[in-house]
Design a protein that fits this description.
Elements (H helix, E strand, L loop, with lengths): L6 H10 L4 E6 L5 H11 L29 H6 L2 H14 L3 E6 L10 H7 L6 E4 L8 H16 L7 E8 L8 H13 L4 E6 L5 H5 L4 E6 L2 H15 L3 E2 L9 H15 L4 H25 L6 E6 L1 H14 L3 E7 L5 H13 L15 E7 H9 L3 E8 L15 H16 L4
Parallel strand pairs: 1-2, 2-3, 4-5, 4-6, 6-7, 8-9, 8-10, 10-11
Helix pairs in contact: 1-6, 4-5, 6-9, 7-15, 10-11, 11-15, 12-13
């Protein structure tokens, strides 16, 4: 079983991350259920969760991502009748944008999706993604879908607002994305900046249409946002703030992220930096006490699997700040080549080059930081003593308090998971 999401998942989560957009899958039901579940779990938009309320055709008991339920006859004769039926029906229930997405199998049928949209009179509300690129990385599917929707929105240039910025490169597929957006908005507010839209997680079509008024686009995760940021640069001349230290994960990378924004916009970052330093000082007391009692976390080992924009700053944070040693470090497919190179160079520099691409490693690690399924599996097999879940698929734990692994609040979340996991050491 492959736990790494592919381009189809990236496309669907990009669409479902817009508040008034809906993805419609031209596919068998097998392609629908997982994606419908994840979209609803990660970004619930309906007030009712009674599956009996979604028994109508195409929804199959889920409020998200209706599908044409293709069968073997449709692969021979085409999906014409089902497409003609689904589009008007979905249009009555949907917002400003409907995106019809072919599953890999449906893309081989060769149906003219644009013709069906035109015949249904929905060409002004509908676009088609006829091929998601089969098994390309999730990041490529995400960015390609966002760019396709940006083109459809026909965004016009607007006068720049000096305090408005866009966050680029966040998906509802990211674990705790809402908490991350809240934390980053809080830090940006300390520099007098306001987030106009998040591309694309929790913003509406109208929010995104107004996004050309931003003073800059701030990239959070490179692999999810660099192409989008370049599109805005080429189309509107909006500059892009990118940190060489990756996503704002850990104190060092968060400071670097803030400094990159401040340098680009010519603003004073001192209040935001002072906030980070205060938090760091407060946290240091607890870490020092924990260390005096246990000798940890210094010297404890970790195994890490994450996107490159997270793996690079996390590895540096765990090694430089906590004194932990990398037993295994692996980046997910579709990462940012530059940050992967920087991560490899860092591991060579500190003498742990054998940890690269060696997940989960030959020996058990004290702490594993990865998706929830991997964390749970390694615990069961006694390949780690504690773990921190930072990506999907999840272990299924219900969470009510806001969480993030970014910014200063994110560092608290990581420290809780790591130090409590290390308490289990003999």
């Amino acid at each position: 079983m492959n736990l790494v999401p592919d381009a189809l998942t990236g496309v669907l989560m990009a669409i479902e991350g817009i508040t008034d957009a809906r993805a419609v899958l031209n596919s068998p039901t097998g392609c629908k259920f997982y994606h419908g579940h994840i979209a609803d779990k990660q970004y619930p938009r309906d007030s009712s969760y009674d599956p009996l309320q979604y028994q109508e055709k195409f929804f199959f008991g889920q409020p998200r991502i209706p599908c044409t339920y293709l069968d073997e006859d449709d692969y021979v004769a085409g999906s014409t009748e089902k497409l003609k039926s689904i589009l008007p029906d979905i249009a009555k229930k949907s917002g400003k944008l409907i995106v019809v997405v072919n599953s890999p199998g449906a893309s081989l049928i060769g149906d003219d999706l644009k013709r069906f949209m035109s015949e249904a009179g929905l060409q002004d509300r509908c676009i088609a993604i006829e091929s998601t690129g089969f098994s390309r990385p999730v990041t490529e599917g995400f960015e390609d879908a966002v760019l396709r929707m940006l083109e459809w929105m026909n965004i016009q240039p607007l006068p720049r607002v000096h305090y408005k910025v866009n966050l680029v490169g966040i998906s509802i597929l990211h674990k705790n994305w809402e908490g991350s957006v809240s934390e980053l908005k809080r830090l940006l507010a300390l520099m007098g900046l306001e987030v106009g839209s998040v591309l694309v997680a929790g913003s509406s079509v109208d929010d995104i249409r107004r996004s050309s008024n931003a003073a800059c686009n701030i990239v959070v995760c490179n692999e999810y946002g660099l192409k989008i940021g370049r599109w805005y640069e080429e189309r509107f001349g909006i500059p892009m703030a990118v940190s060489s230290e990756g996503a704002p994960v850990g104190y060092e990378a968060t400071e670097a992220w803030i400094l990159a924004i401040a340098e680009l916009l010519g603003i004073d970052p001192s209040e935001a930096l002072e906030e980070i330093r205060k938090e760091r000082k407060k946290v240091h007391r607890k870490i020092a006490r924990f260390h005096s009692l246990t000798g940890l976390p210094k010297g404890a080992s970790f195994a890490l699997k994450a996107d490159s924009s997270l793996a690079f700053p996390l590895t540096k944070c765990l090694y430089n700040y906590l004194g932990m040693v990398p037993a295994a470090v692996k980046v997910c497919p579709g990462g940012d080549a530059e940050q992967e190179q920087l991560l490899q160079e860092f591991l060579i520099r500190i003498g742990f080059q054998n940890a690269w691409d060696n997940f989960p490693g030959e020996e058990p690690a004290d702490i594993v930081i990865a998706d929830g399924h991997t964390v749970g599996l390694m615990r069961e097999r006694e390949l780690c003593r504690g773990g921190v879940e930072i990506s999907l698929p999840s272990e299924g734990r219900l969470e009510f308090l806001p969480r993030t692994y970014m910014g200063t609040a994110g560092m608290l979340f990581l420290l809780e998971g790591i130090l409590n996991g290390l308490k289990a050491l003999p």
